[in-house]
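Hello,

Our lab assistant flagged a job as stuck in the queue for most of the afternoon. It eventually completed. Since we weren't sure the result was trustworthy after the delay, we are filing this so someone can double-check. Below is the sequence as submitted and the structure that was eventually returned. Let us know if re-running is recommended.
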Amino acid sequence: MKNKQKLYSIALASATLIFVFSILISSVASAAQVTAQVTRIGNGSDPAIYGSKVAWTDSGVIHVYDLTAKTDTTVNSSAASHPAIYGNKLVWHDESSGVPRLAVYDIPSGARTYITKDIDDRSIPAIYGNRIVWSANYNESNYNYNVYMRDISTSTQTKIAEGSDPDIYDTKIAYGYEDSYGRTIAVYDINTNETINVHSSSQVFSPHIYDNKVIWPDFYTRGGYIQMYDLITKKTIDVTSDNTGNTLSIINDYGYDVVDAGDDTGTHIDINGDKIVYSKSGDDQFGYAGVYVYDIPSAKNTSVYIYPSGTYTTPDIYGNTIVWGIDGNYDIANDNGIYMSDLSATNILPPVAKFTANVTSGTVPLVVRLTDLSTGGVPTSWLWDFGDGIDSKHATNATHTFTKPGIYNVTLTVANGAGNNTVTKSNYITVTPPQAPVADFSTNVTSGTAPLTVLFAATGKGEAISEVETPTSWYWDFGDGINSKDALAVHRFIKPGNYTISLTVGNAIGNNTTTRPGYIVVTDPNTPVANFTSNVTEGYAPLAVQFNDISQKATSRTWDFNGDGQPESIDLNPVYVYANPGTYTVNLTISNENGTASKTAAINVLTPSSPSSGSNGGSNHNSNGGSSSGAGGSPEPARNVQVKELSQAFITNGKTITFDFAKNATCVAYVSFDSKKTAGKTTAIAEQLKGKSTLVSGLPSGEVYKSFNVWVGNSGFATSKNIENPVVCFKVEKAWIKDKKINQDSITLNRYSDKKWEQFPANLSGEDNKYLYFTAKTSGFSSFAITGIAKTSSKETEKGLQLASTETTNNNNTEDKEPQKEQNEILKTPGFEIYYGIASLLTVLLYKRK
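-- returned structure --
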């Protein structure tokens, strides 16, 4: 806990510098802004430039744009990424065949060939003349890939060295490799077969080379900084600052203070002639996030284009022309454009402000997305005024929530080096007070045999947030002459038929009705029920499919396998072979003396040569270094995330790795594990949720304090294959324990895995004035819930809570066989299913009303 207090002190001390450095930021950023003409030339990612040609990908399709003729030509492809271009030769990573390969394309003739030897999903190409280089074939014994070179004029291929992320200029190949120092940047001479070790450090990646100069990003400090080595003078300089003494406390995208150390350059760098381009992804004392250029002779960094903090751009350069897109994994700016800027041309036109909104009216809280449609010169900065005392800077497009009723003016000011312009739309957004509740309901079943008992639960609620919108009255019409006025209603349908269900809900504001015709289907208990399964539903022709009839009460059956209306079989479990590609409708018709029934399904038969979709990467071919694990992102919808915090660490085999969430944004203090594999610089994400995770089907038993997610590295990294002994340290408010009368010893960490909740005991590890800190060993990282049990809870109450979560109950009663036997007898009691359903849906309803 002492270390955490120290971090709090550092953050507090840094916060006092905001006022001083805010003046420095505005002066540095504005003074260094290049007034270059910026033009949008297309949509996509991964741009690369050579001469007057720019290549990029958009949804797996290659585009080639001629800057002189201003024409955009597409190259037939379906799974292309990371293009590289030299002269009239274009090469890219291609997975249109379902396996990784490199495509080599001649632009004038349209001729295309493929490189398939020693290619994997890590193979990102670079090209110079007739030589192409890439890396592949990861070796777990030394944590290196292999660097390969191919001369496409002679079709000869050579292994150059052990390493990764190669770049090529003339007869020199630059790459990085793992060694006893951590990592080393090296240069290989094709003519002499000699290798020069340029620089060694713990976290240097993705070198790029032009003439006698080699550049790379060093991630020893938080965001990384760029260094350059001269092969002639044998000197190394810092292109961007690594001065960790110049710190600035800022408010990041998640709403809490962070200290930004060093010049945040991201991983996307490139060099051509005497200029280096790179991406800054954060706002700090050196300037705002955006695209930057470094002039080697003058040693001066200047900004080309400004973006919102958290946006990662992918710039490339040739001569005085810079092109860039935005990495789709980190698109805070909501922009998929490909842009170019000619540093030798100035912006002669100021922008003309123009915008639109997706909605202009609604009830509180009203979420509005505003989109910039400005004309004239391309803006380099944006300022939105929403008319409610809140504004937004540097966001091309803005999303804003209006929390109070009213009529609001919205203003947009755009600017570039040639001037600025403002437009105001008066009375543009109308926000109205809460409305009447909205009727909705759910049932435990919608069909069955007579007599059918159905549990109905009203789930309707108000459209906004005030308590008055919650329904206070309910009226059910079950379609058989019977009604109910309860929020939860149990109704028994005696006769077969299709029943229309109607629910009307109301409160002091008004009422609302929803009707579902034929919603409940009650069948004769002796009528057959058609159903079947198949071993596959899709595959390549010829496709043999095994069908299995699992119908109920069938005495005869006929199968129509191709939807032509002609029966092909009367067997119980037939096998049918689809010889030709296409989508076929399978129909099973069954019958007995009381009637007939049928079921259909689709079988998709593919052409044997049909390509399967590949993956479209999100970074430039000259910009793919940085980390072998990275941040895998989160499958949790952003609307359910209350707050999240990121932490980074370098993962090394055999070491205990700890990700500290030092900003205290969530209930997670840290996570740790023992690494079984070196993965390099890796990001962990802790997400504190607004409610239950959308990734789980229910909640564990007990009083829930917080629900949260933990994600480590890319999807699939944090498994038992790569880590062991995972631990989560979390904090619980003392006030919550007191208010809920929670037994401190009952506090438990619950993990959701394999569609069930696992419980892990938590040990008290420390406390401060506000929180108790607990640690718990878990089976891995995913979705979690912190629970406790109230001291006053009776055994009867605890049993009722357990019934509300079947997954927890079924997986925690494995040690005592007698209680299990007793529970099974209870489950066999007539009518228990109905009461159990009532209890379950009542628990869900009460949870939602919280």
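-- support follow-up --
The delay was a queue issue, not a problem with the job. The result is valid. The two ends are 33 Å apart (CA to CA). The chain has a mean pLDDT of 82.
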